[in-house]
Amino acid sequence: MTTMRTSIFISFLTLLSFSTAGQKISTRELENIADKFGVDSALKAVRPISEIFTIDTSVALSIAYKCSDLKNYTRQFPYFTNMGQVMKSQFFNLKALDNLKTYKTLLLDPGIKQYKAFVIPDQIFLVLAFQNDTSIIPALKAEYNFWEHNADSIKNTYPSKTKRFFQRFKGTPPSEQLFSDCKENSYKLAWTLHQLGDSDFSMERANTIRQQLVPYLRDYNMERFKFKTYQLKPDTLKLNKSYTSIDEIDFDNEIEFIKLKENLEGDKCWKQIITNNKTGLYEIGCQWAPLAGRGKTIRLELIEGNKLQVSIISAWIS
User: Fold this and answer.
1) Terminal alpha carbon distance of the chain
2) Domain assignment present for 9
3) Is residue 305 located within the same domain as residue 199?
């Protein structure tokens, strides 16, 4: 029975991923997928997953609660860190802090000394800054002291200048790279402590640390991965028919809505609709010529039976 259910679900995901006719799914169905098959399955099921919070904060938070694999570059990591930058919850704060502490173990593991292996991702600090919980300041200071101490220890054991000179023919000397990696964590911690209002950590102090990194990181921008909420500019469309929910709307035959699609449809394009009663997300995009690389995500809200409020929350041309 379990095998059969898994096979059916895999087929369902395949349809969602590859059907050009388009798929419709409710936020509650996504929550059920996360409950029954795991959070990764829910995150694979739809494309505009991080935008779900704009139509259903309860389900967005429920899925985030199930994220446990927070190693950088996993499917769960960007979802967790994006949600942690738009929704306040002690869960995000504590989970991000716990994740930050795990990188000390990587440094102390003698088998892991490769480039960037223990550099803490920016997004973790962005979550902590957004949550703005000053009670974690002592814990962050302890982490800062750890990375500063290890950076000093590494610098005190640098090979001779001559050896490092010849190592530079192959790139940054390993000892200098390890020092910079530790200092990068120190800089990010100092930046976060400044954001939380700790008087011991001015931006000047953080920038002084930043100047000790390898040269190409000395203009490091901590907000480059910041997940920004959209400044919605809604427009109201008058529909041909009257509806009671987003799920009922016949988008292919509503003239005013068709204009929003800008011909982004056909067998070389996709569309997905995520619904939550009177709100929803409609994403359309194309992956093959002549419209390859174009698409948009539209937030929907049925404000009256025949009036639909639409806001383009993202659009792209690549």
Assistant:
1) 44
2) no
3) no
pLDDT in tens, 178-215: 899 999 999 999 999 999 999 999 999 999 999 999 99
The residue among 176, 306, 194 whose CA lies nearest residue 248 is: 306
Number of folded domains that form the chain: 2
CA distance 273 to 163: 60
pLDDT digits (tens, 9 = 90+) for 100-148: 999 998 887 776 656 678 899 999 999 999 999 999 999 999 999 999 9
Of the three residues 148, 182, 217, the one that is the final residue of a domain is: 217
Supply the range of the domain harboring residue 138. 27-217
The verdict on 69 and 205 lying in the same domain is yes
Q: What is the pTM of this model?
A: 0.86
Query: Rg for the chain (alpha carbons), in Å?
Result: 24
The answer as to whether 230 is a domain residue is no
287 vs 309: CA distance, rounded Å: 27
User: Are 83 and 130 contained in the same domain?
Assistant: yes
CB under 8 Å, gap of 24 or more: what pairs does 90-94 form? 90/133, 91/64, 91/65, 92/64, 92/127, 92/131, 93/127, 93/128, 93/131, 93/133, 93/136
Domain assignment present for residue 114? The answer is yes
